[in-house]
Design a protein that fits this description.
single chain; alpha/beta; six-stranded mixed sheet; four-stranded parallel sheet; binds ligand F0G
Length: 435
C-alpha cells in the first residue's frame, strides 16, 4: 500500500519494494516481498531553533554546563580544583518499580542507581575527585586496596590522567567483571593471598614507604566526591529530603560521606529536614552493626565472609567517621543474611533494574526495617544501588543455573534443539507464568 493523501506522523516502508505499512503494523518484514522495513517520520512541525530549544530544555541544563554529576556541585566538593580529571560521572537515575514496593512493603521506594556510572559503581564519584587531587599535588603513582570496584575505578581514572596505578585485591574473592576492568584499564594488579583487610594494611604501608598516593576511601578527597550521591538525589527530589536513605556498608566510606553531605546540606540551608541513614551490612561481615547494637561502646573486627564480595570487610577503615554519620542522622545499622541479599537481588534484577549483590543489601535492609517496625510503609525511602548487575556474573549464574533446589527467583535457561516445537513448548510454559 501507499499513503496517497496526508501522511501520518510516522509509518513503515519496505526498503526493497517501497510498500508502506502503518506505524502499528506488526510484521517484522515486508508482507509483500519479505524485504527489510524502515521507519519514516514526517518532518517535525517546528523550526530548527525550536527543536534545539526543546532538546536543550529537556536535557535540563545549559549546553555549556559541566556534564559531570560531581563537578556540578564543585563549590561544596573541591572549589580550588582547576585541572579536572572527569569521565564525566554521576547523573545517575532515581528509579521506581512497583514490584519493589510490593517486595519491600514500602509505598513508594526510590532507587538511586549508582551502577550507571562510567565504570559501573559509585566509586567513580570519589575517584574523579581523588585523581584530580593526585594530579594537583603532583603525585607520580596512585594505589588502592580493593574488593574490586575501587580498583576498577582507580584504574580507569589513573589511565585517563596518565598516572601509573597499583591495585591490591584479594586473590580469591574479587568478582569477575571488576578484575577484568582493572586489567583492561591497565592497572598493575596484585592478587594478594589474603583478604581485603590484609590488602588495605599492605597498601597503607606501601604508600608510607614507597611514596605512592593512596586512593582508598581513607583519602578524604574521595569522600568529597561521594557526597554528591546524596546531593544529586536531593536535587532530583527538589531539595525535599526523604525520610530515609538506605545504603550498603563495608569499609564505611560511603556512610561517612553521606553523613557529611547531609550535615553540610542542612547547615547550609539546602534541606530543612535531616533524613535518617540506614547502613546495611552482610551478617557475615557486620562489625559495624555489632558496635551499633552496643551503642558504639566499642569497635569490633571480624573475619569477614559473605556472598557480597564488595562488602566482605572485617575491619572498616572509616569507622569513626561513620559513627558520627549514624549519630547525627539518628541512623541505624543493621545486618542482613546472604539469603536475604540474594532474594533482594533477584527482585531488583527481575524488574529489569539489576544490581550487584552488595547493592541489593540496601533493598533487603528496607524490607527488614519495615518488618521490624522501624520504618513505616508511608515513609519516603531512597535505597542506593551501588554497583551494576554485570559486575558479578558468577553469582548471578550460580543462582539462576546451578543452585539446588532452585531458589524462588531462579530463572533456569532451557537448552533446546533448533526445532520450532521446542520453542513453542517453552513459550507455553512461559505463558503459564513459569520462570
Ligand atoms: N557497594 C559496593 C558495590 C561496593 O563496591 C562497596 C565498597 C560498598 C557497597 C561499600 O561501600 O566501603 O564505602 O562502605 N567497595 C570497596 C571497594 C571496598 O574496594 O571497591 P563502603
Amino acid at each position: 500500500m501507499r499513503f496517497e493523501t496526508e501522511r501520518p506522523t510516522s509509518w513503515q516502508a519496505c526498503l526493497t519494494c517501497g510498500n508502506e505499512l502503518t506505524e502499528t503494523d506488526p510484521h517484522s518484514r515486508c508482507p509483500v516481498c519479505g524485504g527489510l522495513l524502515e521507519i519514516h517520520h514526517r518532518p517535525p512541525d517546528l523550526t530548527r531553533d525550536e527543536l534545539i530549544g526543546r532538546f536543550t530544555e529537556r536535557r535540563g541544563r545549559e549546553p555549556t554546563a559541566p556534564p559531570s554529576g560531581v563537578w556540578r556541585f564543585r563549590e561544596i566538593v573541591l572549589p580550588g580544583a582547576r585541572q579536572i580529571v572527569s569521565h564525566p560521572e554521576g547523573n545517575t537515575p532515581l528509579l521506581h518499580r512497583d514490584a519493589l514496593d510490593r517486595w519491600t512493603g514500602v509505598q513508594r521506594l526510590l532507587l538511586k542507581h549508582e551502577g550507571h556510572n562510567p565504570t559501573g559503581s559509585f566509586k567513580d564519584r570519589g575517584m574523579t575527585v581523588g585523581v584530580t587531587q593526585a594530579v594537583r599535588i603532583g603525585a607520580t603513582a596512585v594505589a588502592c586496596a580493593s574488593t574490586g570496584n575501587t580498583s576498577a575505578s582507580l584504574a580507569a581514572y589513573a589511565s585517563q590522567a596518565g598516572l601509573p596505578a597499583l591495585v591490591l585485591v584479594p586473590a580469591d574473592g574479587v568478582a569477575l567483571g571488576k578484575l577484568a576492568q582493572s586489567l583492561a584499564y591497565g592497572a598493575r594488579t596484585l592478587l594478594v593471598r589474603g583478604d581485603f583487610d590484609d590488602c588495605l594494611r599492605l597498601v597503607q604501608e606501601a604508600s608510607d614507604k614507597l611514596g605512592v598516593y593512596l586512593l582508598n576511601s581513607i583519602n578524604p578527597f574521595r569522600l568529597e566526591g561521594q557526597k554528591t550521591i546524596v546531593l544529586e538525589l536531593l536535587q532530583q527530589l527538589g531539595w525535599t529530603a526523604p525520610d530515609w536513605i538506605v545504603l550498603p556498608a563495608g569499609n564505611l566510606g560511603n556512610t561517612a560521606a553521606f553523613g557529611k553531605a547531609l550535615r553540610e546540606a542542612h547547615a547550609w540551608g539546602l534541606i530543612s529536614q535531616m533524613p535518617r541513614l540506614a547502613a546495611v551490612q552482610a551478617s557475615g561481615a557486620a562489625p559495624f552493626a555489632r558496635s551499633f547494637a552496643e551503642g558504639f561502646a566499642r569497635r569490633h573486627t571480624v573475619k569477614a565472609d559473605t556472598v557480597a564480595t564488595a562488602i566482605r570487610i572485617g575491619d572498616p577503615a572509616s569507622y569513626d567517621r561513620a559513627v558520627r554519620a549514624i549519630r547525627e542522622t539518628n541512623g541505624v545499622v543493621m545486618a542482613v543474611e546472604d539469603g536475604e541479599i540474594l532474594e533482594a537481588k533477584a527482585a531488583v534484577d527481575g524488574c529489569g533494574v539489576g544490581c550487584e549483590p552488595a547493592s541489593a543489601a540496601s533493598v533487603a535492609g528496607v524490607r527488614q526495617l519495615l518488618r521490624r517496625g522501624i520504618m513505616a510503609p508511608e515513609e519516603h525511602a531512597v535505597a542506593v544501588l551501588t554497583g551494576h548487575i554485570l559486575k558479578d556474573p558468577e553469582v548471578l549464574l550460580r543462582y539462576h543455573r546451578e543452585t539446588e533446589p532452585p531458589p524462588p527467583g531462579a530463572n533456569r535457561p532451557i537448552e533446546i534443539e533448533p526445532d520450532l516445537r521446542e520453542v513453542e513448548r517453552a513459550l507455553q510454559e512461559t505463558g503459564k507464568g513459569e520462570r
